[in-house]
Specification:
Blueprint: H1 11-15, E1 23-25, H2 28-37, E2 41-46, H3 51-61, H4 64-73, E3 75-80, H5 85-99, E4 106-110, E5 116-120, H6 134-147, H7 149-166, H8 177-190, H9 207-220, H10 223-238, E6 252-253, E7 261-262, E8 265-266, H11 267-284, H12 287-304, E9 312-315, E10 318-319, E11 322-323, H13 331-334, H14 364-375, E12 382-387, H15 388-405, H16 408-425, E13 426-427, E14 430-431, E15 434-436, E16 439-440, H17 447-464, H18 467-483, H19 518-532, H20 535-551, H21 553-558, H22 564-575, E17 578-583, H23 588-600, E18 606-610, E19 629-634, E20 637-638, H24 645-653
Helix pairs in contact: 4-6, 9-10, 9-11, 9-22, 11-12, 11-15, 15-16, 15-17, 16-17, 17-18, 17-19, 18-19, 19-20, 19-22, 23-24
Length: 657
């Protein structure tokens, strides 16, 4: 028998549709049922690509006896954290406060009015030192609920009061050139000089921090900043976390040397890293970084693109219940190619298998043959829901990479994804967070959806010249400013709109974690839009972005590793963003000027080409001698127009460090 998850649009929820647990989706009806029965709620949060979520499902949620106990004594609610990041954020904060750590699966017990009173993550089927079994846990919770309900209700109220008390915006603090330089010094102190990246194992790709380091070098010439960025980029691209055959990056490395990955592949990681490697290739001219970009784009288009033109959320860590089964090789299977991939008779993974690293170039024929052989193996599952924010990230990355590397098909793929988001996710000016098979999901967009999608549409406007994308982006930004701002704290934002479902606390987390925070993604888009939009919006966007960065100033100064995107935005503000407007008919002369600008404008700057007056940036910028011309402005102060590529290059490289 199927349960109430059978009609869900979330692949994660559908994974649990045949469990003997009588799951409910997150809904008012579930909590009403808990009140009617006077039982607690088991909240279980995870996502489709989560290895330990699968493990706990097999061990506990597929167990008939465990399910029978849950069904008798709880209302069980299953949540996809990617579909409901607001629910996940609120109860993850509780889990971290109660246990000192967090992660997925997340297991939280709630009163019938959704107040938490006990929290944890994975629980095994049999007790372990310091950890009860899941069956012991639910029996203890049920017994306590029956014997001491008033104490539980008081405890839950105290938890909600405490997390609400702590949820106050940081006081404003300026982020200037000194703060940015100090962030580099702080990062140097945490940098792993042997392996690249920061700290030890497990090691995650510090995508937004790396982007900041590139931008800081572009503005200041800092050797330390670019050294940390390139050393980490090299280590990641050479390690097992990067798919040496098919392109794309896994979620993280379980070791400090980037050798053995946790094999799930997330869209947001690959979008952020694609953009970073594109910018690093532009900075260095490295063929190796270009190869990473091209192979990562191939992975995205081959394995994550959906039939509707969007991009799927992730590939599973497991294949047929075995982590990494698709990707690992034995020494004998590789034959003469083993040395090129750093594989020896002494395996670095499990069951005599190894992950692949880059030691030397094996040759295209060898690589293609191994990839074809791997394609014949069982493949990991795909979570094919389309998430607005993550697709916004990949739209931006594909647009910029396509422009820089001269690949119009990449820009077309970005345009297709944007069209899907505009037609399916955008309803009367408001965003829906997810869709699947071209059908929108039930959840409203959160702040990161507005910020990241606006950022992607602004990048697409620049590389296509289409005013449609600029108009849609500005509409999203106007909605975000109106519906998500904290009214009593200028520059601060909530992650949910003012008319969103009321949770026990309205989430507002400005920290950059695996992906940009909602507030930093909004600030980034506001800076870019201030350079591209008309005069009626430009100053308002710039002031809003500046206020948001100031509100995150203490975070940027004290914890730069968790403010990478904020620091990137601050770099643009301190630099005084560069604008290049290329006007003229669509011919080879205009194309040459545009390509020269794209190749040299640093991060945070904008480039738009088109007929005079066809976009706000192109207004009041006439042709010169009836031919194409480029207008270069820094910090809203403009040079005289130039008509040759040589003169444009001279203008763009003037005063560079």
């Amino acid at each position: 028998m199927t349960n109430r998850l059978a009609d869900a649009t979330s692949p994660y929820l559908l994974q649990h549709a045949d469990n003997p647990v009588d799951w409910w989706p997150w809904s008012a009806e579930a909590f009403e049922e808990a009140r009617r029965r006077n039982v607690p709620v088991l909240l279980s949060v995870g996502y489709a690509a989560c290895h330990w979520c699968h493990v706990m499902a097999h061990e506990s949620f597929e167990d008939d006896e465990v399910a029978a106990f849950l069904n008798a004594h709880f209302v069980s609610v299953k949540v996809d954290r990617e579909e409901r990041p607001d629910v996940d954020a609120v109860y993850m904060e509780v889990t971290q406060a109660m246990t000192g750590h967090g992660g997925w699966p997340m297991t939280v017990f709630l009163t019938p009015d959704a107040r938490p009173f006990h929290a944890g993550t994975y629980y095994p089927p049999a007790p372990r030192p310091g950890m009860p079994s899941f069956r012991q846990l639910i029996e203890a919770v049920s017994a306590t609920w029956a014997a001491q309900p008033n104490e539980i209700l008081e405890s839950a109220s105290a938890v909600v009061e405490e997390i609400s008390r702590q949820a106050t915006p940081l006081p404003p603090s300026t982020v200037d050139a000194d703060v940015l330089a100090g962030a580099v010094v702080s990062l140097l102190g945490e940098f792993d000089r042997r392996n690249g990246g920061f700290d030890g194992a497990p090691k995650f790709p510090p995508s937004m921090v790396l982007e900041f380091l590139v931008r800081h070098h572009e503005r200041t010439g800092s050797v330390e900043a670019v050294s940390m960025a390139t050393a980490t980029a090299d280590a990641m691209a050479d390690g097992g976390m990067y798919d040496q055959l098919g392109g794309g990056f896994a979620r993280y490395s379980v070791d400090a040397s980037w050798v053995v990955p946790h094999f799930e592949k997330m869209l947001y990681d690959n979008a952020l890293l694609l953009r970073f490697y594109t910018h690093l290739a532009r900075l260095t001219g490295s063929a190796r970084y270009e190869r990473v970009v091209r192979d990562t784009v191939s992975f995205l288009l081959r394995e994550l693109r959906t039939a509707e033109g969007g991009f799927a959320a992730s590939l599973d860590a497991d294949t047929e219940g075995v982590e990494g089964l698709t990707y690992v090789w034995s020494y004998d299977e590789l034959g003469s190619a083993a040395a090129a991939f750093g594989v020896t008779p002494d395996p670095n993974f499990e069951d005599g298998k190894s992950t692949l690293r880059f030691v030397s170039e094996p040759g295209e024929e060898v690589r293609a043959a191994l990839l074809a052989e791997r394609a014949s193996r069982p493949q990991p599952g795909r979570d094919d829901k389309v998430i607005a924010s993550w697709n916004g990230m990949v739209i931006a990355a594909l647009a910029e990479a396509g422009a820089f590397f001269g690949e119009p098909s990449w820009i077309s793929a970005a345009s297709d994804a944007a069209s899907l988001l505009a037609s399916v996710h955008l309803v009367e000016g408001r965003l829906l967070r997810t869709s699947r098979d071209g059908v929108a999901g039930p959840s409203f967009g959160v702040l990161e959806d507005y910020g990241c999608l606006a950022d992607g549409l602004l990048a697409l406007h620049q590389v296509t010249g289409s005013i449609r994308w600029l108009d849609l982006a500005c509409g999203l930004l106007d909605t975000a400013l109106a519906r998500f701002a904290a009214p009593d704290s200028p520059g601060a934002y909530h992650d949910t709109a003012d008319d969103a479902e009321a949770l026990v606390r309205r989430p507002a987390d400005s920290t950059d974690n695996a992906s940009p925070s909602g507030a930093s993604s909004l600030a980034s888009a506001l800076v870019t839009a201030s350079l591209l939009a008309g005069a009626d919006r430009s100053s308002r966007y710039f002031e809003a972005a500046s206020a948001a960065v100031t509100r995150a100033g203490l975070l940027a100064a004290r914890a730069p590793r968790f403010a990478g995107h904020w620091l990137t935005v601050a770099e643009a503000l301190v630099a005084g963003p560069l604008q290049v407007a290329v006007v003229g008919a669509d011919d080879s002369r205009r194309a040459s000027l545009w390509a020269a600008a794209v190749a040299r404008v640093p991060g945070g700057g904008v480039v738009v080409a088109g007929e005079p007056g066809s976009a706000p940036l192109l207004e009041d910028r006439p042709l010169v001698d009836d031919g194409p011309a480029a207008y270069v402005c820094r910090g809203y102060v403009c040079d005289r127009p130039v008509v040759s590529v040589e003169a444009l290059v001279t203008s763009l490289t003037a005063n560079t460090p």
